[in-house]
Amino acid sequence: MIATEGFQLMAHLLRRAGFGATYTEIQEQLSEGYESTIETYLQPSDSDSRHLEDDVIRRYHSDIHESRIPEAPGSQWVYRMVTTNSPLEEKIALFWHGIFATGFSKTQQGPSLFLQIETFRELGLGKFDDLLLAISKDPVMIMWLDNQDNHKGAINENFGRELLELFSMGIGNYTETDIKECARAFTGWTLDNAEYMEARSLKASIWPYGGIAWHYDYRDEDHDHGAKEFLGERGNFNGDDIIEIICRNPATARFIARHIYDFFVADEAPVPQWPYVPPVDPDAIEILADAYLQSNHDISSVLRVLFNSDFFKQSRFARVKCPAEFVVGALRLSGAISEPTLEINEARAVIGYMGQFLLNPPSVEGWHEGQEWINSGALVERVNFAAKQLSNVDNPGVKNIISELTRQTEEHSTPEFIVDRCLDLMGPLTMTEDDTKFALVEHVANGGDLNLQNLDTDDNSLQRVGDLLGLIASTKEYHRT
Amino acid sequence: MSTNDDRAVVVIQLTGGNDYLNTVIPYNNELYFDNRPHVYHNPDKVIKLDDTLGLNPSMGPIKDLWDEGNVAIINGIGYPEPNRSHFRSMDIWHTAEPTKVINEGWLARAIRDIDPSGDNVLTGLNLGRGLPRALACKGVPVASVGSLENYGLFPDARDEAARLEILNTFTRMYGGTVGRDAVSEFISQTGNYAIKGADTLRTAPQKYMSSVEYSANPLSQSLRDAAQVMFADLGTRVFYAQHGSFDTHGGELPVHATLWSEVASAIGDFTDDLKEHGRYDNTLILMFSEFGRRIKDNGSGTDHGSGGVAFCIGGAVEGGFYGEYPSLKEQNQLDGDLRFNNDFRETYSTILDRWLGLDPVHIVNGRFEQFNFI
Q1: In A, which residues are within 8 Å of B200 by CB distance?
Q2: Residues A185 and A241 sit within 8 Å (Cβ to Cβ)
Q3: How many domains does chain A have?
């Protein structure tokens, strides 16, 4: 291991705040500095972006455009994750998607799902109240949790319940009566032409209106204007009042803090166990919850505290990569995809095979994360995908790794030296177990001398380097971040 | 009579909370129509089973099996103090533990008892993405297969010689059973299961022949994969598949009809295949959902409720009604829901004891009465 502590820390930040970075990218950020990199990431800018604009995709890449096939909005999102220059913008969208888990299975509405992700990008790093309000008015969320059926005098409590259980405070901080009062406050929050849109969506047809995004509509005459008692407060509350009350509740601060910790620092117990199982690091949750309350619920402020904290810096490889992180990370490293081609569809599909069908979570409760991402089927998918990406010596990112490797090695470099260089260029990855590194070194040694100085003419050596990089992407350590 | 050793159980999870009242329908009960002014089935269309109960009109293939005497309908199934959160209620069914949160799945514990040394990594097989908690337990190998056809490690290696070298190194990298931490050990172990399972599973599609053409829906395809593995005699005893989403808060009638027609055709295809291969008498299908739904509809759908229905289907199953159909009368309701009258662990215990020949007590966390459907 030659990579310095500073280099490793920067690599850690870029994995967590984004989807990992190449050797060159880490060096660039290192010259900018750690704290300054955090600020850059916290202020996403789309200038100098590498991806095509959505309207261009719509016109010229109909294969992955949202209106054509159900999975298309997921593909479009994966394309953005792979190509963005503002990785935290996509990472925070992924974070919120895991919480406000909305799915195609019921809504049959690609364009609106796509716009929900856009909402996460725009508001996901801002004030939580604004995000929660936007999501409560988000037409595809309304349809997902049936708020178009939530009427004055005939409530449908689905949205009201999940708002409290899954989107803000968590079980144990409110009563069944609070749920009903909450539902009453959101009566009249519906979508334009709801009955017709619902009928269309149930027919699972994309035409004529299926391909056009839904719109939010507030119907005052269907809103229950009566007095409500919610979390001990009394008033003629409307939905925005409820959100205001929820967002300043300390339970919300702790619940959101724990989610942020789980996603950015270290795997927590599964969410349904939270009422019964204490956090991994209760002090960290308190620090993050304080940051939330002190900053008037500003998510960027919470993340700034988090990324600068010791508990974050010491959390290297404490999380199991979720499938989107795993696949997007491998693709950004291999440089295999830069255009919205059909390969993006494959990448989106394989994320699904690994257990994370984007924009189609198994239920409103999102996915079981952490160690539960790993089972023998998912592991086979992960290993096969990463090995294919990183062993392909024609991929631009792999070419860059190999040319840097050539620069850093000599004709008589030992297998161990070569393996160490590769681990640095692929991460840097820390091989926590001797078994792994020993097996890699043996693998190189067993193949005979490996000379990296004449790869232009020595195709066998080139392929062997490819095999080695593929194997490194198959290690236990590569599954973690 | 088959021996316990070649009997298989196939669990089908109906995800999202299946509406019991519109699955097994009390088609001449006035209270049904009073409570369901919008979300009800016309009695003329209901597939009648007896003078009071009938199946959802989309469940034709299941009625055929019922007529053959091999469908047990367990009415009023549930557990005390019902939880109306999908996540928690599903966890309760998966872990067979309603009162506290635990991580071990009931089927994983059954697999551990079937194969205590974990010799066969294919004793349990999940068909589909991700691993349901019912099958999850530290130290219990379970294969999870999205698609049987392209299952294996390093299929993209440049040639077979390279693939074998890579696989050899991979095996060594994952070989250490003592790791830095529990997660690392878990990944190691899973890698080992994958290596063992992948090579074996690859052989199943090659051996498979059948005249049954399965429907295109995902559950049918999963059950076709199950049939292929079962007929290849790889020692798989527990299969798991799921279908959904049954979370019909809105627009229930058309969605619920589509779901049940998919499930029923999948069951029809699968049982046809089992019969063709002489496996129907050795296979028991259990179908369940995490909860039923409210008695009253909400105008276009139904909200989360309690009290539900489970089905057991197979050549060795003594068909008929078990449990009691819950009363719809207001004084008998539980906060607007159906009251359960038999604990789902009675059904689990019956299957574990009478079908798989296992001691159910520690698997379902208690001693429960059993049914006579086996």
Answers
A1: none
A2: yes
A3: 3
